[in-house]
Amino acid sequence: MDKTLFDLYTDFLLSSFGPVTATNLSRLLDGAISHDQITRLLSGEPKRSVHLWQKVKPLVRAVESPDGVIVIDDSISEKPYTDENELICWHWDHSQNRSVKGINFLTAFYQVGGVGLPVAFDLVTKTETYLDPKTGKEKRRSAISKNERFRMLLRISVQNEIQFSYVLTDLWYASAENMEFVVRTLQKHFVFPLKENRKVALSEADQKQGRFVAVDTLDLPAGQTRQIWLEDVPFALLLTKEVFTNKDGSTGVRYLVTDDLTLTYDQIIKLYKRRWSVEVYHESLKQNASLEKSPTRTETTQRNHFFASLCAYVKLESLKIRTGLNHFALKSKIYLAAIKISYQEFVKLEPISLGA
Q1: How far is CA 250 from each of CA 171, 226, 273, rounded to the nearest angstrom?
Q2: Would you give the distance in Å from CA 294 to the centre of its chain?
Q3: pLDDT above 80 (res 330)
Q4: Are the CB atoms for 172 and 94 separated by under 8 Å?
Q5: Neighbours of 20 (CB within 10 A)
Q6: Which residues pair with 89 in a beta bridge?
Q7: Contact of 101 with 89, CB cutoff 8 Å
Q8: CB 229 within 8 A of CB 236
């Protein structure tokens, strides 16, 4: 991939406020780069996680620390008007409680200090078809589960020797197999949430004899911790209950578990709050790095545009470190500068005054 052209393209993704088409970029550069050159750029070798690491590695090495955490989460880049293929297809969106069409992607997101960087990613492809027994309609499915992808991204993070101590994620990935993988295989710690109906044992003996109770039936005051055992997890865990207030004023309860039995309640809560950084990343990737603004039609160009948006995000994060401005403030600054130039150009046209 032509690095100079690639940099131009990622800069375009950050500075654009409309559709990011090859034609628009060529016009922006007064034809210095042709439409066909940009199309060939996006039609080249499909970029993978290893290519992202090559881009982000220098910045990671500059900021990394053992205090870092890896957050694994997935999101959907909606593409409602794009033809369906193995990459762009229907996925269940838990945040909307419905199926949406788009690109479902997982990210290993490295958070350390005030810096957050994607260090590995995986795009969910549904390569198999089957008949839905309820509707009789043909549907798509992936040959690889999200939990397998979760473990793959963590394995990549460890192979790349990124300094981190804890893994954070949401309810979807809080399986016994993933817990054991983090602790026994990776030699790392985790803080995971538990569903309210998750079965727990109050002693190792209870676990071995199959005596479990639902976590929400425990007499566990908020702000305290308790040692518990989960089915199929071969080590003790520390459980705590967090009570919080939602935006609408209602009260919410979250149960968190960790394998690190030395942590206090405050330390567990503080660690898990760092998971929110991945939500900010998803929002910025979509709003500031033009993830959903490309009309690419083929799977290869869609993959490479996604990769370019990730690299554009990394550029923004680098600018944030240098300027102290967050992504949305940086984008607002670009927008204001563009509006000023637009206004000046309009004034030069000497519009007719309409009077008072």
Answers
A1: 21, 26, 19
A2: 19
A3: yes
A4: yes
A5: 26
A6: 102
A7: yes
A8: yes
For 68, 169, 246, the CA distances from 60, given in Å and listed in that order, are 10, 20, 34
- CA distances 99 to 76, 89, 145, 299, 353, Å, are 10, 10, 17, 20, 52
Alpha carbon distances (Å) from 34 to 38, 76, 301: 7, 31, 17
Q: How far apart (Å, rounded) are the C-alpha atoms in residues 15 and 38?
A: 17
From the list 112, 94, 92, the residue with the least C-alpha distance to 102 is 92
216 burial via Cβ count (<10 Å: 0-12, 13-18, 19+): middle
CA distance 167 to 42: 33
Over the stretch 22-45, which tens digit does the pLDDT of each residue have? 999 999 999 999 999 999 999 999
Q: 305-308: long-range contacts at Cβ-Cβ below 8 A with a sequence spacing of 24 or more?
A: 305/20, 305/42, 306/77, 306/103, 306/105, 306/123, 307/47, 307/51, 307/52, 308/6, 308/9, 308/10, 308/13, 308/42
Which residues is 45 bridged to in the sheet? none
Token pair of 181, please?
Answer: 């993988």
Q: Would you state the pLDDT for residue 75? A: 97
DSSP 3-state of 255: strand
Q: pLDDT > 70: what percent of the chain?
A: 99
What is the phi-psi region of residue 102: left when phi exceeds 0, alpha when psi lies from -120 to 50, beta otherwise? left
Alpha carbon distance 126, 89 (integer Å): 8
The residue assigned the tokens 């473990």 is 151
Tell me if the pTM is above 0.90. yes
Enumerate residues 6+ apart whose C-beta is below 8 A from 265.
Answer: 223, 224, 225, 240
Cα 186 to Cα 178: distance, rounded to the nearest angstrom: 11
SS3 102: strand
Contact between 255 and 196 under an 8 Å Cβ cutoff? The reply is yes
More confident residue, 249 or 236: 236
Dist. CA 79–CA 17, nearest whole Å: 18
Q: Give residue 214's pLDDT band: very low, low, confident or very high (50, 70, 90).
A: very high
Return d(Cα 8, Cα 19) in angstroms, integer. 16
Which residues, in sequence order, are CB contacts of 208 under 8 Å at separation 6+? none
